[in-house]
């Protein structure tokens, strides 16, 4: 029984991966005709099997992406007043800096094996290679907050309670998160160069 169910499960997975709708029909028939718990146990077991391509290994393109994102964040922080004004204004300001897309945490996890300790003349920038994922988590937290505050600044002008003052409050908070995001990412870039 178990071997037959495994063969059926692998056939269902193959059908699902190929985009066929037959997998749904087969799995629902099997689930209703056989012991539902056995079938669900097999599916849960299959979910824990290693799959190709799921884990992200650090690629050659990840480090340049990290560096480019750091450059774009630096451009935003050097023009912080224009960044704030753009978020708070009703119409977009031409050539105003916008924050780049956040680097996924899984990319940073892949780069952690290439990280080395960073020692500079600025004690707040120094860290050991073991702290790479901690700094990456800090980056992810600040970048996520930045993204949310940018959206809130745009929404702060809309609606009954919306005004330029509300948008300005969120824009200033976004600017603070932008600075923290840029600091964390610059340390991560130094660690993998």
Description of the structure:
The structure is a single chain. This protein is mainly alpha-helical and 193 residues long. The chain contains 8 helices and no strands. The protein has helices at 2-17, 22-33, 36-47, 62-78, 80-88, 105-111, 132-155, 164-192. Helix 1 (2-17) crosses helix 3 and helix 4 crosses helix 8 (164-192). The N and C termini lie far apart (55 Å).
Chain-wise SSE layout:
Layout: H1 2-17, H2 22-33, H3 36-47, H4 62-78, H5 80-88, H6 105-111, H7 132-155, H8 164-192
Helix pairs in contact: 1-2, 1-3, 2-3, 4-8, 5-8, 7-8
Distance between the first and last residues' Cα: 55 Å
Radius of gyration: 24 Å
What general outline do the C-alpha atoms trace?
A: elongated
What structural category do the secondary elements indicate?
A: mainly alpha
Q: Roughly what percent helix?
A: 55-70%
Order of helices and strands: HHHHHHHH
Offer a quick outline of the entry.
The protein has 193 residues and is mainly α.
What brief labels describe this structure?
193 residues, mainly alpha, 8 helices, 0% strand
